[in-house]
Amino acid sequence: MAKTPSSKTAKPSKTAKSAKSAKPAKSSKAATPAASPAPGSSGPAVDIGIKDKDRRKISSELSRLLADSFSLYLKTHNFHWNVTGPMFNSLHAMFEEQYTEQWQALDEIAERIRALGYNAPGSYTEFTKLSSIAEEPGATKAPSWEEMVRQLVEGNEAVCRTARTVLDEADDADDAPTEDLVTQRLQTHEKYAWMLRSLLQ
What we know:
There is one protein chain. This protein has helices spanning 14-21, 52-82, 88-115, 124-130, 145-172, 176-198. It is an all-alpha fold. It has a domain at 56-130 and 140-198: Ferritin, core subunit, four-helix bundle (Ferritin, Up-down Bundle).
């Protein structure tokens, strides 16, 4: 059996010692998703007629809207898969119609954030931090259809409240494209909340 080299004959060099003793540099805290300027700083600065501080505020609120919208989309899709009971056929179809529309809207919100010159959040970690909608824990037993509908009413209304905050910021900055986008989202989610609530009355 081969002998291992003696510690006397294999002394580490000063360079190796210093490399071992050197502490890894502490990573700086990541910026809030909405506060991250878009990549490509070599190009011209964004100049679309909206002040930088206003673009930053609007992007920040749009990021919250994106997070709420994604959370609601995920919950609606989850309930589409797991709904049971006498309302199965109608709710299975309704949930599918809603989550399909919500999925397409995510792109529009994210692209508006990019047009304003900021990065759109796109990870579960970011969405969890930014969203006001509680995540469905994914228990082995799915909620009753009534509980699913109740949660989706609350989720759609939460998106409406966030959208109104974005609308206020966009209105103050005369950001008509964002106002137009958010007004459409408000109309959609108010309608969904009304339709869902009607099932419980």
